[in-house]
Design a protein that fits this description.
3-stranded antiparallel beta sheet; binds cytidine-5'-monophosphate; 223 residues; CMP kinase activity; Cytidylate kinase; kinase; alpha/beta
Length: 223
């Protein structure tokens, strides 16, 4: 499989989502928002009354997940779960926290692995997540690891939520980010860490266009 893949990994709120969709739009490449798959698993478990502590039941939910990503004319993506538009529902903080819990179940990660690899279709793929460069696409042409301070990420998440019309509290967002970082970095399978061959970009002091320009320059060297 020689489809070029660019991986963007890093903690929540580092700007991966925004930057990945800009890169995908620039190149007209496919986009994988892998976090959405974990969020969808968490939401489906919730909808089916499955406790996230019941690992076998959650793994079954991940295996049989009925999802569809529809790209709209404005390049935004509509996320469908069992025929329902859940684009808004999966962005809730409670679902993000539950996603981080289900993501620590090895059988859930296994169930979602092939589904993620199936996104690598020509002309190319931008893959956004935590383990895109380490586990899902180890042969990616370019691996970026985006970071930013926890405070800056909480500020960005707060702005994002406010724009989406969801009310938020800075202190609780910061705490959630710290708890989620801790869980993502310390889980036994696919912990959040840069691949050995990843380029680490700290975006705390960088604007979105700056980050995109740096990644485009790196990609130009490799394609
Ligand atoms: O990126 P997003 O906030 O949507 O991801 C939700 C959760 O899914 C993360 O906190 C992380 O625990 C999990 N995740 C993961 N591996 C990925 C993407 C997301 O474990 N590749």
């Amino acid at each position: 499989n020689d489809v070029p893949v660019v991986t963007l990994d890093g903690p929540g709120g580092a700007g991966k989502g925004t930057i990945s969709s800009m890169l995908a739009a620039n190149h007209r490449w496919h986009l994988l928002d892998s976090g959405a798959l974990y969020r969808l698993t968490a939401l489906a478990a919730h909808n089916h009354g499955v406790d996230v502590a019941d690992e076998a039941a959650v793994a079954h939910i991940a295996e049989t997940l009925d999802v569809c990503f529809l790209t709209e004319a404005d390049t935004s993506v509509k996320v469908m779960l069992e025929g329902q538009d859940v684009s808004h529902a999966i962005r809730q903080e409670a679902i993000g926290n539950a996603a981080s819990v289900v993501a620590s179940i090895p059988a859930v990660r296994d169930a979602l692995l092939q589904r993620q690899r199936d996104f690598a279709i020509g002309p190319g793929l931008i893959a956004d997540g935590r383990d895109m460069g380490t586990t899902v696409f180890p042969a990616a042409v370019l691996k970026i690891f985006l970071t930013a301070s926890a405070e800056e990420r909480a500020r960005r998440r707060m702005n994002q939520l406010q724009l989406a019309g969801i009310s938020a509290n800075f202190g609780s967002l910061l705490r959630d980010i710290q708890v989620r970082d801790e869980r993502d970095q310390n889980r036994s399978v696919s912990p959040l860490k840069p691949a050995d061959d990843a380029i680490v970009l700290d975006t705390t002091e960088l604007s979105i266009p700056d980050v995109v320009a740096r990644i485009e320059a790196l990609l130009d060297e490799r394609l």
